[in-house]
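User: I'm new to structure prediction. If I give you an amino acid sequence, what do you actually give back? Let's try with this one:
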Amino acid sequence: METRRRSVVKAVVWNAIGLVMMTLVGLVATGSAAVGGTLAIVNTAIGLTMYLIYERIWAGITWGRNV
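Assistant: Good question. You get back a string of structure tokens that encode the predicted 3D arrangement of the chain. For your 67 residues, that looks like this:
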């Protein structure tokens, strides 16, 4: 079973990668670093929150685990 701290660290690292990628995509798509950055921040905030919820739900499900 994962600890909450591990779940949070994994989520933060994953979302940092996503933040950089989304900023670049937003910059290319809009030509504006400000708009691209704003899109990336909103996307990262939503994604981080949903990922943490998703991970904690799955942490409580024993299906498919070798216990």
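You can read the tokens as a compact description of the fold. Here is one thing that stands out. The first helix runs from residue 4 to 30.
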